[in-house]
Write a structure and sequence with these properties.
alpha+beta; five-stranded antiparallel sheet; 5 helices; 5 strands; elongated
């Protein structure tokens, strides 16, 4: 005769389930934190690559960072005329298009389209068909879906240009060149790419740093607005960075 196996009592079963639930409650935040850090690291890597491509472009263009049709005094634009074949002739992007300036890295440096997408921002996605042959385009199809980063507005108005603003390879090392996308709200709000916890910022010397506030310009001003607080406008002077496009 075999001895009858002893079954778990209801109390013992509840205790085991309680222990499992407690372990899950402890482990889930740790796993989520690990996922956040991995996404921040990939985002940082993307911006570092963007910085390298900007440097390569500048080396090939007398130190100038990318920009397309420029009309001093015209407001900055975004996402215009993506199907234009040539970004530097009439019929190309509307003047002062910040997104078209960044797209030049895809055209001239063969930069992978997916580099412009933030892994933490599940809205952004890249387009393999565009990546296969970007030479027949001047812009992203939809910059709000294909571009998760903002770039220092390379189109100063006349007062800023007269004051010495130039987006070139000889800029001050601490000048912010690009970062997670501008939230478009002004104030001191962080980028929405990382649930407003902060943003990765690419500086002119090529290093990328995680910042918990957008107040990291040369004079600790907001990298997403002018010194006067405007979101989409010309930089105010040689030390002022306004990273565009804005999400809203």
């Amino acid at each position: 005769m075999f001895a009858k196996a002893k079954a778990f009592s209801l109390v013992e079963l509840l205790v085991v389930l309680g222990i499992i639930a407690a372990l899950i409650a402890i482990l889930l935040p740790v796993l989520e934190k690990g996922r956040e850090r991995a996404n921040e690291a990939k985002c940082m890597s993307n911006l570092r690559t963007i910085g390298q491509m900007l440097s390569l472009y500048a080396n090939e263009n007398h130190g100038n960072y990318p920009r397309t049709i420029y009309i001093p005094g015209a407001p900055p634009t975004a996402g215009t005329n993506p199907s234009a074949v040539d970004p530097f002739v009439p019929g190309g992007p509307v003047a002062n298009d910040v997104t078209a300036a960044l797209f030049l890295l895809v055209r001239t440096q063969k930069m992978p389209m997916e580099t412009f997408t933030c892994p933490y921002n599940d809205v952004t996605t890249w387009e393999p068909d565009v990546a296969a042959d970007p030479t027949g385009r001047s812009n992203f199809t939809n910059f709000r879906k294909n571009l998760a980063y903002s770039y220092a507005n390379p189109y100063p108005d006349k007062p800023a240009a007269d004051g010495g603003f130039q987006l070139k390879s000889n800029m001050t090392a601490a000048f912010p060149i690009a970062a997670d996308v501008n939230p478009g709200t002004g104030g001191t709000e962080n980028s929405t790419n990382h649930e407003e916890r902060g943003q990765n910022v690419l500086f002119a010397d090529g290093h990328v740093q995680w910042e918990t506030s957008p107040l990291v310009g040369i004079d600790k001003d907001n990298i997403y607005t002018t010194r006067g607080g405007a979101v989409a406008a010309s930089p105010a002077d040689a030390q002022d960075a306004v990273l565009l496009p804005a999400q809203k």
